[in-house]
UniProtKB/TrEMBL annotation:
Organism encoding this protein: Mobilicoccus pelagius NBRC 104925
SUPFAM superfamilies, alphabetized: Pseudouridine synthase (SSF55120)
PROSITE patterns assigned to the protein according to its UniProt record, in alphabetical order: PSI_RLU
PANTHER family associated with the record: MITOCHONDRIAL RNA PSEUDOURIDINE SYNTHASE (PTHR21600), PSEUDOURIDINE SYNTHASE RSUA_RLUA-LIKE DOMAIN-CONTAINING PROTEIN (PTHR21600:SF84)
GO MF term list: catalytic activity, acting on RNA; pseudouridine synthase activity; RNA binding
Catalytic activity: a uridine in RNA = a pseudouridine in RNA
The protein's name in its UniProt record: RNA pseudouridylate synthase
Amino acid sequence: MREITGASEQIDRRLAAGEIVLADGAVVTATTSYVEGRRRGGSVWTYRDLPSETPVPGELVELHRDEDVLVVDKPPFLATTPRGSHVRETVLGRVQAAGDPDASPAHRLDRLTSGVLLLTLRPEARAAYQELFASRRVVKTYEARVWTAGRPAETLPGVVRSRIVKERGEMCAREVAGEPNAETCLEVLDVAGGTARLWLRPRTGRTHQLRVHLASLGTPIVGDPLYGVEADRERPESFDAPLALVARELTFVDPISGRARTFTSRCDLPGEPCGPVTGNGGGTDELGGAGTPAGPSEPDHR
């Protein structure tokens, strides 16, 4: 193995720590023979070293917990699940490290979006909640602040429908001609300082749907590095300039208990970061508890 990898110190360290195993789970030691390894399946397994990651600022705030689900407020810049260069600094990574090894997101939020996210805690409950989201039986409400220099807010339509596609390997999604596969309801809440604050209720779940729809209307979301105004697209990513998009509310009938449930994010619409909350953590049924950090305290960094 040393000859194959050229990493003798790393191999010695992992052998000593019991981090190299055979296909049947038996730990490889310095005295494990080639013949024994072949007899036990032939393959050798170990954990790969993870690259260093920039810590993401903001705590993961617990809004609600019961036997089946954990509902949290996700800060901006924190990925939902491990992908690419984001492994430890993800919602799933933090929740599992805090003591919930079976946690699994029932849906996803874009890395740049903050707000309410639901995870299942038991493998037995996972399918019911994932199907709830997949079948679009959850009403999702987002809050966004958009630029209005390109279009007065009062001229925005109440519903946007279009066809959105995102090719594998491309960063951006785009609208194309054809049968609509994406629908978003809009409501203007207020207008101030060249921006407008909106409620958004997507009826479908295409990648970057809200960002694409608002950009196509001439009112891109403030701070959007992909679909935003030129200044936002050219600005280097900074924890001090988050995307002004919050997943504000989830409403659904619980697939296990049958109760009507609503969970509301306490995140400020950026630019202020998510932080710990006090009082009711956002769940409207009797199971909702106080908002508390879902894991160890972390420095404000994203």
